[in-house]
Amino acid sequence: MQIPDTAKDSYSKNGFHIFKEPIVDKERVQNALVGMDNVRAGKYDLGKPPEESPWNPGDDVNLLCKIEQPQIADRAIAELIRSPEIGEFVATATGAKMVQVWWVQLLYKPPIFKNEPRTTRVGWHHDWTYWKEFWEDGSELLTAWFSLKDVHAESGAMKFVAGSHLWEGMDGGDFYSQRNTSDDFNLPPGKNWNEQLALFPAGCMSIHHKLTLHGSGENTSSKPRRSFALHLRTDKSAPLLRRRENLTKYIDDMDICPIIFGEKVDKAFA
Ligand SMILES: O=C(O)CCC(=O)C(=O)O
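Above: query sequence and 2-oxoglutaric acid SMILES. Below: predicted holo C-alpha cells.
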C-alpha cells in the first residue's frame, strides 16, 4: 500500500487528512460490520460488555448510536482497531515513532426517520474539550475516523474546519448540539471558516488533530452511516496519572489499547 506523501503537509496545514484509498482488507471490514451489528444487539463474543455508553441495546434505533470501547466486547472490532496499516498511515502523517489506540467509539448514524430529523447531528467541537483533564498539556492526540461503508455528502459525513487546529480559544463546542452553526465560535482576526466534507469509500479513513473543529449533519441517505472513531496517542503524549482511572484507565492493557505502530517509548511507561 502506497501512503500518499502529501499526507504530512496536509495534516499539519489543515489539521486533518482524508485517505481515500482502502487501508485494510475487505474481509476485516466485513467482519467488523458483523461485529458492529452484534454489539448493537447486545451480543458480545468476548464475553464482556463495552464501557458504559450513551446508547445501549434496546434504545431507539433512530437515534445516533455511540458505544464506548466496543473492542472489549467483540473480537472482529478488536481485530480491526489493531490493524497495523492504520498505524502506518497515522505515523506517516504525523511523523510519530509510536501510535497507540487509547479509546474507541462505535458510531452508527441512522437515516432520518420518516422525514423527521432526530438528534443525529454532531455539533461543532474539538476533542481536546473532552480530553484535557486526562492528558498532559501538549500531548499529541488525534482521531482516526474509519468507515465501514462508503461515505457520501448525504450520509451525514464528517466536516472539518480547515486550519482550525492552529486557532486559539475554540473551546466550548458540544458534540451533542444540534445547531451545526459557526456562530457559536469567535474566529481569530483574519481567519475564515472553511468547512470541508470528508467523503470516501468503505475501508478508508480520515484523521484529525485534537484541536480541529469538526461535526456532522444528519443522514439524509437511505442507509446508515457506520464507522469507528479511534482515539490515538503518539510517543509525544502522557496521561495525567492522577486521572488514570478515567478515559486513560485502559492504557496499559494492550488488548484494549493496542500499540499499532512502533513500541512503547513515553514517560508514562517508564
Ligand atoms: O461521527 C461523527 O459525526 C463525529 C465523530 C467525532 O466527533 C470524532 O470522531 O471525534
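Residues 35 and 136 are 34 Å apart (CA to CA).
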